[in-house]
Automatic annotation (TrEMBL):
GO terms for cellular component: membrane. Its main location: other. Residues 1-26 form the signal peptide. It comes from Oryza brachyantha. This is Leucine-rich repeat-containing N-terminal plant-type domain-containing protein. It holds the Pfam family LRRNT_2. It is found in: Cell envelope; Membrane. Belongs to the polygalacturonase-inhibiting protein family. Residues 37-74 form the Leucine-rich repeat-containing N-terminal plant-type domain.
Length: 283
């Protein structure tokens, strides 16, 4: 009886150990240390496409990719969530292998010498979790892909229609030559906190837009925006951190509120016929 019990315990222990071994093997096939294998392959392909720059020399097959400079991962899944290749003076197109980092949330490629068009995969179709994209300080051309946050792209042409349905927290597309109707970015229920459209060629009726409830930065100077300033801009609960509508084609009385006292005349100057404080009174 004792021998039978001992034999059963032995076989049970072996079974448990085999089960653990299978799970461990399965986990190893998915991740390499603290790094998803498919993401690691994508990162090595990105490095190669960028010409194997010396600054990325620590990116090699013998170390876990989540420990590499500029790479952050989800602690549970080991998937790459953040990628920063900043100011390395790299001259190359945007690597196609970035599209394989399907759990990427933030991507910062600013201040290199990247050239060519902005790839269409830099948007929710290929990268559904991407909420931050920085490409400024490069030599990229073409239209803006439907990404959630875009900084200082040197681009021309109209905004894509997909911007109207995208979920934004902060939009900065200032200092470009963008045209068309940017009113799609507004909406009372949108979660937009900051909107910077300065020095473009946007044309839309500001008086007809609904200001997002959370919006506390509105900087749209040096465009061709017309109409009037919405009365909601002076709502008692609205706490503006930045407000500038100067050098447009706006008209009518400026809705009076704390923001008109905080932001002086220069933030309203250069319009067609705006009036009242901080500008001269309406006639």
């Amino acid at each position: 009886m004792a021998m039978e019990l001992s034999s059963r315990m032995f076989h049970h222990t072996v079974g448990v150990l085999l089960a653990i071994l299978v799970v461990a093997t399965a986990a190893t096939s998915k991740t390499d240390g603290l790094c998803d294998k498919s993401d690691k392959a994508a990162l090595l392909a990105i490095k190669s496409a960028l010409g194997n720059p010396p600054a990325l020399s620590v990116w090699n097959s013998s170390t876990p990719c989540c420990s590499w400079d500029g790479v952050s991962c989800n602690a549970t899944t080991a998937r790459v969530t953040d990628l920063t290749i900043f100011a390395l003076n790299i001259s190359a197109p945007v690597p196609a292998a970035i599209a394989n980092l399907t759990k990427l949330q933030t991507l910062n490629l600013a201040y290199n010498q990247l050239y060519g068009p902005i790839p269409s995969f830099l948007g929710p179709r290929a990268l559904p979790d991407l909420t931050f994209l920085r490409l400024d300080g490069n030599r990229l051309t073409g239209t803006i892909p439907p990404t959630a946050t875009v900084f200082n792209l040197l681009l021309t042409g109209p905004l894509p229609a997909t911007f109207g349905s995208a979920v934004f927290g902060d939009v900065d597309i200032a200092n470009n030559q963008l045209t068309g109707d940017a009113s799609m970015l507004f909406g009372a229920k949108k979660t937009l906190n900051a909107l910077r459209l300065s020095r473009n060629r946007f044309t839309f009726d500001l008086g007809r837009v609904e200001l997002p409830e959370q919006l506390d930065i509105l900087v749209i100077d040096h465009n061709m925006v017309y109409g009037s300033i919405p009365a909601a801009a002076a709502a008692p609960g609205r706490k503006w951190l930045a407000f500038d509508v100067s050098y447009n084609q706006l008209c009518g009385p400026i809705p009076q509120g704390r923001y008109t006292h905080r932001f002086g005349a220069k933030h309203f100057a250069g319009n067609k016929c705006l009036c009242d404080r901080p500008l001269p009174p309406c006639s």
